[in-house]
Amino acid sequence: MMRRFLVLLLILLSIGSPAMATEEPKFTLVLKDGDFEVRDYAPTVVAEVTVSGNQGQASNQGFRILAGYIFGGNTAQRSIAMTAPVAQRQASERIAMTAPVTQRSAGSDWIVRFTMPSEYTLGTLPRPDDRRITLRDEPGQRMAVMRFSGIANARSAERHTRELDVQLQARGLRRTGPTSLAQYDAPWTPWFMRRNEIMVPIAG
């Protein structure tokens, strides 16, 4: 139990410390207007797991499972560098035909995702010991983003999702996939210094 706690502590330190120069997915900034941005992301490889519960429970559970993988719970028994952000989305979210209105089901399944370091491909990553974890290629895509600080709980995520939808509607942008919540900082980071983002793929 103590060993597991120390492992998670090291992971969180690596996220929160500027000196660690945590890698983030590469993108080209297309548009910026205050906290609203449009970005073109390069293809990446991701590790993800589906978990159940409310947003906070799912985030914690998914983080622990994926942390086990990158800290040696894999066929090579190799540590893999932590990247930012940690992203999660509802597994059962459906996109209305008249976007940007989003319909969310009453289900409680969430997908929590780590982006793998850019040095890896799907072919060179070690396989996870935990069969709940899926490795897959994430294609390059255009993303609309609403950035915000503070505590990324369900209420704040919902509020900033609505703000993002207003921006999409005003600019005639069409969402093409589900909404994700991306969190970049360790839990002990002061709330006013935290970086969170609501992200949604849009038509290019």
From TrEMBL:
Signal sequence annotation: 1-21
Keywords: Signal
InterPro entries noted in UniProt: Reg_factor_effector_dom_sf (IPR011256), SOUL_heme-bd (IPR006917)
Protein name (database record): Heme-binding protein
Organism of this sequence: Brevundimonas variabilis
